[in-house]
């Protein structure tokens, strides 16, 4: 009788050990998933406020909604299928594509720094062109620019 009780307690201890190991795995996986989800949210948070500045308060939510819809469309219709196809059929191409994206972002950053330290007079013409746009055209231009930027940052 005493050996049966000891065997039962041993089985309970073994089950508790397996449950504790499973909880560790769940915690590790949720940390990993949370960091990936944070990456998606952070790139959207970086895009949206920059494009909404300068519009009236009643238009801001509409603009954010259009940007979010465009971002979702980019991710679901273009980026996700492309990533699945690449991982299934051309896994070797993923690393070079990521490297090309990094080179492009470095180029864009260097260009921004160059324009900061050596401005040129093309910006005066851009300001005149923006002043000639109606508010609806300006809003459409800002939204399409934000969606394009989100696509580049997400890819």
Automatic annotation (TrEMBL):
PANTHER family: INNER MEMBRANE PROTEIN YEDI. This is Putative membrane protein. InterPro entries: YedI. It comes from uncultured Rubellimicrobium sp. The chain crosses the membrane at residues 76-94. Keywords: Membrane, Transmembrane, Transmembrane helix. GO terms for cellular component: plasma membrane. The keyword Membrane applies. Pfam families: DUF808.
